[in-house]
Amino acid sequence: MLQWLRRYRRAWLPGDVSAGVVVAMMMIPQGMAYAIVAGLPPVVGIYASILPPVVYALFGSSMTQSVGPMAIVSLMTAAVIGPLAPAGSSLYGVLAAQLALVSGLMLLVCGALKLGFLANFFSRPVMSGFTFGSAVVIAQGQLPALLGGDFGHIHMPSAALGIAALLLLVLARQWLAGLLRLAGLNPALADTASKLAPMLVVIAGTALMACSSLPAQGVHMTGTVPAGLPGLNLATSSGHWRALLQPGLLIGFIVFLMSMSAAQTLALKRNEKLLSNHELLGLGAANVASALSGGFPVTGSISRSAVNFAAGANSPLASLITAALLALALIAPTGWLALLPLPVLAATIIVAVLGMLEWATLRMAWRYDRGDALAWLATGVGVLALGVEAGVVIGVALSMGTLIWRASRPHIAVLGRIAGSEHFRNIERYPGLTQPEILLLRIDANLFFGNVEAVGERIEEELRGHPGACHLVLTMTAVSSIDTTALYALTEWNASLKRRQIGLHLAEVKGPVLDRLRQTELLQQLNGQLFLSTAMAVDYLHRTVPGWDPHI
Amino acid sequence: MLQWLRRYRRAWLPGDVSAGVVVAMMMIPQGMAYAIVAGLPPVVGIYASILPPVVYALFGSSMTQSVGPMAIVSLMTAAVIGPLAPAGSSLYGVLAAQLALVSGLMLLVCGALKLGFLANFFSRPVMSGFTFGSAVVIAQGQLPALLGGDFGHIHMPSAALGIAALLLLVLARQWLAGLLRLAGLNPALADTASKLAPMLVVIAGTALMACSSLPAQGVHMTGTVPAGLPGLNLATSSGHWRALLQPGLLIGFIVFLMSMSAAQTLALKRNEKLLSNHELLGLGAANVASALSGGFPVTGSISRSAVNFAAGANSPLASLITAALLALALIAPTGWLALLPLPVLAATIIVAVLGMLEWATLRMAWRYDRGDALAWLATGVGVLALGVEAGVVIGVALSMGTLIWRASRPHIAVLGRIAGSEHFRNIERYPGLTQPEILLLRIDANLFFGNVEAVGERIEEELRGHPGACHLVLTMTAVSSIDTTALYALTEWNASLKRRQIGLHLAEVKGPVLDRLRQTELLQQLNGQLFLSTAMAVDYLHRTVPGWDPHI
Fold this sequence. Notes:
The structure is a homodimer of 552-residue chains.
Chain A: H1 3-6, H2 13-37, H3 42-47, H4 51-59, E1 67-68, H5 71-81, H6 90-112, H7 124-147, H8 156-182, H9 187-194, H10 197-211, H11 241-269, H12 276-292, E2 299-300, H13 302-310, H14 317-331, H15 342-354, H16 360-368, H17 370-386, H18 388-407, E3 412-417, E4 424-426, E5 438-443, H19 452-465, E6 471-475, H20 484-499, E7 503-507, H21 511-517, H22 522-525, E8 530-531, H23 534-544
Parallel strand pairs in A: 5-6, 6-7, 7-8
Antiparallel strand pairs in A: 1-2, 3-4, 3-5
């Protein structure tokens, strides 16, 4: 906690200040836009951008993560709260804060239980398909706001304004950085400055509304924004806690995955170490803070964090500066925020999520691993067809299925002796000497409930293929653990082999594994012996086989 | 399908006939009892015992599995349907059949997708804890029926009858087999005969009701049983399909796990091969058949299958004979079934589930693997405190968590050269020669999304521990696959190491892995080389290290 402050260096300050300012200018339009995606008044997006990054700076482990509203998490918020409260009602806002509280508490519990390893849950294709599908859903949801009405009922002034803003933003995205570079800015500065385009377009749009007849023509605006800092908003919380438990868990999960994938990308660039359990605590505390300040679920955003990083952030101080600037913006007169045209905000949302539409992972997976490509497609299509919550469930089911499938295919090698040596190798890869009476199997995986059935089947298969075998030696070099299920299985295999008069011997059992096996009855009941090495097992068993010639 | 019929031998017939008869006598009281557990009229339990085993005989792979009503699946059925329809209503029966249909179709789909590997999902402690908790819930649920009322309002004649039946059954369970053996029966026959005690107690109870004043005193009976075979019961199915989807999936999952664990135990005793994908199809078809004949979810029962096995069943013909006898029992006059006293049926249920209360797995896990013991307790307590559905979810979450946790801890060894040889071994276990400039890591796991983060962290940790290393060699002997996520990670590690001027070399990459990597850009971009062996890598890199003496 606050380790970064203790080792803070003066040289970091300029970078932190400039990143703090840049991210604040990016955060104002983005926070408002993502509040709209969540179905909330735009100002709530700014509320959710103040306390959460401050709290994250205390607990999180990433140095450059920018915590606040994020498109996909906002979409999930809307999907959860939409059916529970009418849009625009005060209940909606209360439930959104409550959802952040539930997610935050769950993240804190997971952090306390050190469940950070769950960050490895989604494969990259699943994550990419999920992001792609969500981006399409978000963009599609903003079309009516962009055009001032549904497809049949387009409001021309709104549509003109929205599409103009969209074009400007797309052009800025494509060309602005290059133009600034040509104008003499250094490349890093040019890239960063180009990220301020949404803020400039929003300011221009607001100015246009102030000086033109567009409001009179019916272009929608954000409306009055209450000045001042947000207050606690959970007082009226009603009996919806139960309904928010499961969605809160799903959102907490996505908050964690999204933030970790953003932070990992950046940590790798600076060889920083990311502590996933600290991330859980940081994100949990940030969401609780968001709830307490009238916000909604927040997470680390890759787009904003990358800008923070590129603008020179060296420590979470940058985020603290951003938060301070946003608080100032709320304390300052906020009348101008009321004039912000909704079509322009919709344009910023659409352009922001266009950046999340990438096919590269799907293309790569399609060429490299068809199964991964199908997982991408299943998740992406799942989000589009069944919604974002179902998309998470599909992603979880696919990941789970893949894990079990992988676990259930352990590698097992039949060993043969390399002539004239003490070495035994996989006979499929090296020409090794074998004997019909002794079957040597090396198990190349820890034995546990996920693979014990497969190992048992493989043993039976090899025994069918070696009908003359009267001794089975399991070489356990690669077995570092045997769980309770596998212990039972070993006991049952032993009994079954005993009935068939086949000896079961264990060789090269690792010290810690052996220590634990000694606490059980398996070793006393073993229908065979323990050997220090495979060679010792073979040399010994050799002598027990009838007709063995000791002179060979 | 029907493979067993093609290779049927005449010698199997006596065993199949006797097992068929014994299981039928066991099935009548058990089927009625488990229908009561599911909240259904007793006769439905007999409906569900006719068509399902016939259909299972066509598709399943186990030779001795007895498919029909089963206590835990009945409990889950009651938990699902209870909130949707009033007990005793015809809607309740329709929904129970509909649930069997949904579960059956899901099992068939899983079978078609060859998802049989999911049988490895629950660890043995989780399964044991789940069974234990469910047994307690079932026994507790039968107490009012046993005593003729709640604890405050015990109906003395009912309680006397119920407790008498309970004592008889407990005594029979403990002593009957022994007594029969003393009376000269051979042990196997004595064991089997003792399993008929519930049938005898039920017949005695019914006779008592017929000749005594107990019915007049208010002892509840099963009531009129409609004669004849069941008809299709899904016609009135209403809009509950959606509500049954998720519970149907959970029940299908438990149906599969319960049946597989029963069949595996028996298959091991006869060295039969069980095909989990065939089991999915067999159980799916059996549940669809149960739905079509007005039943409820069914599965293979370990207690009944063990009796089937012990009574000499050699093939599914035994189950066909059982089904035929049950159908006959329904066609025959069923008036006597109406007199069956409910306290006696409750006693048979309680005694049946007492057999499922075993502490041995918990005790063993507690001594051997504390984590497994905690999983047992979490699942068992979860079922007791939150219900059987929540118990399944807890079991799934624990299994998933364990899988990810295991996957996220791959074994990685730092290698050193065994002096004077071409062999490289783990320096923690063998004294090996190392050089500060070259770090050799052997990755002992397939690289995939579940462990790639952990591998990356370990690499960074080793590089911090070997600050002089300018070459990193990854020995890939144990890597049989690299998924898309891991391919991305390798690419990122390569870029990161390149920036730090550390070479990344791959040694002993397996043929199939190499073939797939060649389709990507990783090898062209590799900041190092591919080597056939670790020894070749070290010999080559040696020469590039400044100050190396070629004469050593």
